[in-house]
Amino acid sequence: MKILLTASAALLCATAAAAQVTPPAPPSPPAMTTPPMPPMPPRGGMRGFGAMSEPGRQAMMGAMRADRAANRADHDRVKASRDRMLAVLDAERLDTAALKRAMDEEREAANAMKARRQSAMLAAFQSLSVADRRAFVADARSMRDRVETRVEKRMNRRMKRHGGGDDMVPPMPPMPPQPPR
Q: Residues 1-5: contacts with CB within 8 Å, 24+ apart?
């Protein structure tokens, strides 16, 4: 009888353990009711080159991305020069020679960055076909018109919000008379 009880208890425990080991299947996910989102338009400069061929787009993007490390270094030089200018201007006594040096350093770094960008763009323009160059010009003009329209709309909204007209900004008060020296 003891063996029968032990066997029954073992069988009962095994059944309970087997029931716990196999979890119920998870419910299937609901069917997708909304269609997937369309792909986003290209970001950055690619948006402005929509009418160009793929090789033309790649050439222009390569020119815009050319030598980013050097451009970053020049940008850091420009920022450091501007910080030096502010430090000189913040001093009790104005050191015009130090201010001029900082201004010269800023101009040199900015010019180096611009020259590098223009050189890369020139090489890219030379590699474009006539159709791609014309598409670039059309896209550039279209982009310029969109920006001008956007700026004009913002200015009109601002003028409407603030009363508009020439009286939007009050005239400057007259300068007080200078004391005699």
A: none
Which residues, 6+ apart, have CB-to-CB distance to 131 below 8 Å? 53
Has residue 43 been placed in a domain? no
**Structural domain for 69, as ranges:** 50-161
Task: With respect to residue 109, please indicate whether it lies within any of the assigned structural domains.
Answer: yes
Q: Name the domain count of the chain.
A: 1
Q: 22-77 pLDDT, tens per residue?
A: 566 667 666 555 556 555 445 544 456 778 899 998 998 888 887 787 888 888 99
- Is residue 142 within 8 A of residue 52, CB to CB? The reply is no
- What is the residue-wise DSSP string for 42-90? PPGGGGGGTTS-HHHHHHHHHHHHTTHHHHHHHHHHHHHHHHHHHHHHH
CA–CA separation, 22 and 76 (whole Å): 62
Token pair 């309970």 in the structure block, residue: 16
Asked whether the beta carbons of 45 and 136 are under 8 A apart, the reply is no
Give residue 95's identity as a one-letter amino acid code.
Answer: D
Cβ neighbours, 10 Å, residue 132? 21
